[in-house]
Amino acid sequence: MNAIVQSGADVIHAIESAAGVFAGSIFEGTDGSFVWEFLFITLILGGLAARATGRANAGTWRPYTLTFVYILLLGLAVRFLHFALFQRTLLSPHYYIVDEIVLQAIALWSYRATRAGQMTRQYRWMFEKSGSTGWIRRAE
Predict the structure, then answer these.
(1) Is the per-residue pLDDT at 5 higher than 70?
(2) Is residue 40 part of a domain?
(3) Could you tell me if residue 2 is inside a domain?
């Protein structure tokens, strides 16, 4: 991939060929559409749902363990979408775990970012924000 990219078609081809290296471990399938399926179903649809779940649970002061369980169920729904829309394997533990890792990471980030905002707004005399997902005790 040392060549200069000439057009949008070259970019798409470069992404598909680079993703082909991961075809057996991350993406399901060997045709060129598996990258776009993963991006659309897992990252966009599943990711938005995971983000909303993390925000909703943090916004109502629920523990993260409940979010973790909800995302386990969301992972099953994402696997079903892969199966129903693109005829991929429904009951594949390997690809379920791959989807789960992505969804759990998005949900955890969303949960922590929302909780950091809550803690620094609700208890502004005690905490200040430290990065996008953390808070620290104010110095006295």
Answers:
(1) no
(2) yes
(3) no
